[in-house]
Amino acid sequence: MKRKIITTADGSHTIQILDWNEQYHSKHGAIQEAYHVFIKNGLSLFPSGDLSILEIGFGTGLNAFITFIEAQKKNISIHYTGVELYPVGIEEIKQLNYVARLKAETSDKLFLAMHEAPWEEATKISKAFHLHKRRIDFTAIDDESMYDLVYFDAFGARVQPELWTEDLFSKMYRAMKKGGVLVTYAAKGSVRRAMQDVGFRVERLEGPPGKREMLRACK
After folding, report:
1. 49-99 tens-digit pLDDT
2. What is the reported pTM?
3. Is 126 exposed, middle or buried (0-12, 13-18, 19+ CB in 10 A)?
4. End-to-end CA separation in angstroms for the chain
5. How do strand 213-218 and strand 176-184 relate by DSSP bridges?
6. Are 160 and 188 in contact (CB under 8 A)?
7. Half-sphere exposure of 183 (CA within 13 A, CB side)
8. Domains and their CATH numbers in the chain
9. Can you list the alpha helix ranges (DSSP code H) found in the chain?
C-alpha cells in the first residue's frame, strides 16, 4: 500500500497509508496523542518498580521511545514487548522527527537501536529498558498473566474492525496481570462493550487533542 510521511498539528511526523486514508498516529498531533493516551493515562499509574508492558502495534516506535524517556525520569525498569506483523522500514524510520521534537538528541542512537534490534529475542536497550519485538499477528498472542500495562494502538476499527472484537480483548485480558491496565485512543461504544463483555472494568476519559474521549480498561 502507498505510504507517505506527513506532519501532524504539533509538528511531529506520522506515516499515512494513502489507500486507507489512515495514519499511524493522530493528525492532531502524534506526540501529543501518544503522551496523553499512553503516558498520562497509562504509565503514570505506575510510579515505581519493575513494569512489564505490551504494545499492540509497535509501528514507528514512538510509544516505546517516549516510555523509555519517561521511565528514565522516574527510575522505572521496563520490560517492553512490541507486537508488529508489518514492521516499518529503517529508512522510513530515519525520516521521522521524534528525536528532535522531543529534544532527545542524547537518545538518538537508542531510538534507532529499538528499530535495529532483532525480532523474537529480548534486547537490552539500556540498563533499565529491555525490548522484545515479536513479528506475529495480534491474534496469535497467547501470553497469560504477564503484563502490567497494555498499549492498545492498533489501526482503527474503520479499516481493521477484526482487531477490536471480544476475541482479541479476551486475549488481552488473559495476557494481563490482575490489576493490569489497558489504554487505547479508541472510544467507540462497540469497543467499550467488547471490553466489558470479556471482564474488563472500563472507564471513559478525556481524549487527546482532536478526540472527545478515550478508553481505559482494568483487569
Report:
1. 899 999 999 999 999 999 999 999 998 999 999 999 999 999 999 999 999
2. 0.97
3. middle
4. 37
5. antiparallel
6. no
7. 23
8. 29-218 (3.40.50.150)
9. 30-34, 62-74, 90-93, 98-101, 108-116, 166-175, 189-197
